[in-house]
Amino acid sequence: MRMPSALNNTGMRFLSRRLDGVDLLRGLAILTVLLNHVNMRLFLARIPYTEGLPHQLVATLFWSGQRGVQIFFAVSGFLITSTSIRRWGALAKVAPLAFYRLRVARIAPLLILLLLVLSLLHAAGLQNFVVAEQTGGLGRALLAALTFHVNWLEATRGYLPGNWDILWSLSVEEMFYLFFPLVCRLFKRGLIGVLAVFIVLGPFARTLLSADNDVWHEYSYLGGMDAIACGCLTAILLSGRSLSTGASRCAGVAGVVLLTFCLGFSNVAATWGLEAAGLDMTVLAVGTCLVMAASAESRWVAPRVLAPLTRLGQRSYEVYLTHMFVVFALFGLFRSPVALLFIATILLAAVLGEGVARVYTEPMNARLRARAM
């Protein structure tokens, strides 16, 4: 499909190749998730490995997983909107069925394989993989995973095992994918207004609308949709436009400052009341979007020293869905020295994700996409 002339030499030019800045953000996000989930095993085992460390350092390194997912949400909204504009020329022209087929090609192969493996491990009664009856058992968990409401199930019945629990974020994203093309077609001239509403509702979803439910406070649909909406809005504002060099640099610096503040000074944000107001995650999403905008416009190339983190970001989906196998396996083998446990988990999760991508998800994605076109 030939792109409209209004997009040929504008801010949408970056869509022809990967963006190092975006991959780096995804790498940072998945790294926070990995560190968080290893930390959770140590925390639940009451291993006091953080004693003597500064509180902010502990919070930044080991309790930033939720913030990492928020970064993922913003990236997802940005990339889906950008690629949709490139593919169809305008969001109002998005073809829902074609959109769904392309999303299924990317998401379904690994998700279905994961659910199959988890079902077998549940049937075998393997520790850390059995879905308790109080949460509805295996059938209920499968239904939740396939109908995008793992987050709701956990909020009402309790946490699922670790490999299932991570699917809460996919429930939020997949609900976004389900309605995105329909909203684009329905609100042809009011899409920006719809996105603005989601951004405004995000903080309320994490506070007033969570109804004192700690799980829903973190896992609600609206609580993640503000970051996705920020990403969508960023892509829309960039389409058909180009930022000046100065504006791009300012956006990049501002984005890095906001990300550093949200990740490295979260205790200060809490002291200022941002967390209590639900605004800390919105600020994080805005910072992420500013960095993406600057990266897209400047065509920034990551230095070689950041190549491992960039590659980790490129495989973030595969690493995200498979990393808990590594976490449980290594934690069962050894818990000390703790530093080695963290390093080994990151390395093996990256290797597993890379292998799964090369051997399975990429070939399946290419095959399904070929059939969808």
Molecular structure report:
The chain has one domain. It is built from 18 helices and no strands. It has helices spanning 5-8, 20-44, 55-62, 65-88, 96-123, 137-146, 150-157, 162-165, 167-186, 191-205, 214-219, 221-238, 245-264, 266-271, 280-298, 307-314, 316-333, 338-372. The chain is 74% helix and 0% strand.
What gyration radius follows from the Cα positions, in whole Å? 20 Å
**Structural class by sheet pairing and helices:** mainly alpha
Major sheet characteristics = none
Number of strands: 0
State the end-to-end distance. 12 Å
Average predicted confidence as pLDDT: 94
> Can you tell me the number of structural domains?
1
What string gives the helices and strands in order?
HHHHHHHHHHHHHHHHHH
* Count of helical stretches: 18
- Choose one word for the global shape: globular
Q: Which residue ranges are poorly predicted, with pLDDT under 50 across at least 5 consecutive positions?
A: 1-15
Helix content: over 70%
Q: What are its keywords?
A:
globular, single chain, 373 residues, disordered N terminus, 0% strand, mainly alpha
